[in-house]
Amino acid sequence: QDELVESGGGSVQPGGSLRLSCAASGITFGFNVMGWYRQTPGNERELVARITPGSSTDYAGFVKGRFTISRDNSKSTVYLQMNSLKPEDTAVYYCNAHDFRNGYDSWGQGTQVTVSS
């Protein structure tokens, strides 16, 4: 059974940093594009960043230069380093695994990030 477990969320002041982690199990990590999405109340979930098994990355325009996604294939874990956080980054952040062989998606339970003074 596939499972994605996020950690590292919390509250931080504007300009601060957080590092999210997502540990995957029950999937073939090397066949999955891993991504981070976020969602605020009343809005659709939106892509923040994603990374291929070969570590090619793609970022939403609103986080370029501030966030960095990375993965450790030996640990089946994906990370999101978030720097220069802004109040508008406040959201629930979700980890996603997309198996490019069959299009199957797995989701984590989400972790809250709050940026406030």
Task: Please give a structural write-up.
- The protein is mostly beta strands.
- The chain is 0% helix and 53% strand.
- It has strands spanning 3-7, 10-12, 18-25, 32-39, 46-51, 57-59, 67-72, 77-82, 91-99, 105-107, 111-115.
- Strands 2, 4, 5, 6, 9, 10 and 11 form a seven-stranded mixed sheet that branches. Strands 1-3-8-7 form a four-stranded antiparallel sheet, with no helix packed on it.
- The protein is globular, with a radius of gyration of 13 Å.
- The model has no long low-confidence stretch (mean pLDDT 96).
Topology:
Layout: E1 3-7, E2 10-12, E3 18-25, E4 32-39, E5 46-51, E6 57-59, E7 67-72, E8 77-82, E9 91-99, E10 105-107, E11 111-115
Parallel strand pairs: 2-11
Antiparallel strand pairs: 1-3, 3-8, 4-5, 4-9, 5-6, 7-8, 9-10, 9-11
List the keywords.
four-stranded antiparallel sheet; 0% helix; seven-stranded mixed sheet; 11 strands; 53% strand; 117 residues; mainly beta
Distance between the terminal alpha carbons, to the nearest Å?
A: 40 Å
Low-confidence stretches: none
Give the helices and strands as they follow along the chain: EEEEEEEEEEE
What does the average pLDDT come to? 96
| Number of contiguous helices | 0
* Strand content range: over 45%
**Percentage of residues assigned to helices:** under 10%
Decide which structural class fits the backbone. Answer: mainly beta
Radius of gyration: 13 Å
- The total strand number stands at 11
Bulk shape: globular
User: What can be said about the biggest beta sheet?
Assistant: 7 strands, mixed
